Amino acid sequence: MNIKKLVKPNIRSLSAYEAKDIACAVKLDANESPYSAPAGQPARFSVQKNFQALNRYPDPEAKALRKIIAKEFSLRPENILHGNGSDELIYYLITTFGGPVLYPVPTFSMYGIISQALGEKKIEIPLDKEFDLDLEKILTAIKKYKPKLIFLTPPNNPTGNCFSSEKILKILPLFTVHCSLVVIDEAYHPFAGDKGFTPMLKDYKNLVILRTLSKIGLAGLRVGFLLADKDIVNEVNKVRLPFNLNSLSQTIASDALKDKALIKSNIRTIIKEREKLLDELSEINGITPYPSEANFILFKTENPAKIYKGLLKKGVLVRNLSGIVKECLRVTVGTPEENRIFLRALKKCLSI
Ligand code: PMP
Asked: Distance from the CA of 257 to the center of ligand 1, in angstroms?
């Protein structure tokens, strides 16, 4: 029996998201934080507190966690929806509103993968030479295809830059004419300088913001959240699986967010290290790094496959993105020691 014949055509032609488990000493491929927050003891304490409750289902509405998040953003819990990572919320958004789904490319691959899995039309608009939005092409595509959802990602993965806010502000008001929701995925916002788009939620009923704890030291918890008008939250909540966020994740995330001093100081360290890494990469002959406001740096090199393999041989894992952005690799900012090891290995690979 050929199982592929049973599979829906849109799934048959889909490639699964690649997250290979590759052994390495220095892991700089997945845009995680090199620092766990909370580290060690506080996390164990949270888990112990919850142990008695593990025979019970988690709070389906994650009330305590949503209350903390609402307070942080000066919103109400009705404006917050919790997800098992923001990936799950992207899935729920496309399930709820359907396509066409418009997004610039290159960007985070899950917008396309999920659209295809759900059989929704994808409209991919290439970024311009500076990796910024091509506003004219986007506006034309909005008029032509009337997308239900537009995903924009400042800072963008994998390019690392924030798109021009003026351009995003030209797209947002189109809701009333074309009925599109604009989803601003702020997964990497903590590493960027500006305020982001959460202050604009009160001005735009069609604005949805996605945030995650994955990049700030809690990737293993799988906690993401969506911020939006309560009418949007109510609709998306209809497709949410009842117990999507387990009790341990809810408790540890709540504890971590109650006292953000550690998370904030780790973010400051990562930003400082990113700037140092950018300076040092631009000094290396044969490497062109792109400016970044995220916790990773995209860089160009003549022979990315050779450099990727060479780095891995020396125990350093980065992401080879040359199939998506010509001749480019992406490195996550690690600890000062990890970054030093990466730079030394890179220089050696280039001199071979
Ligand atoms: N959005 C962007 C732009 C990302 O890069 C990622 C993770 N790589 C996600 C969302 C998903 O994050 P989470 O771990 O919260 O599912």
From this structure: 19
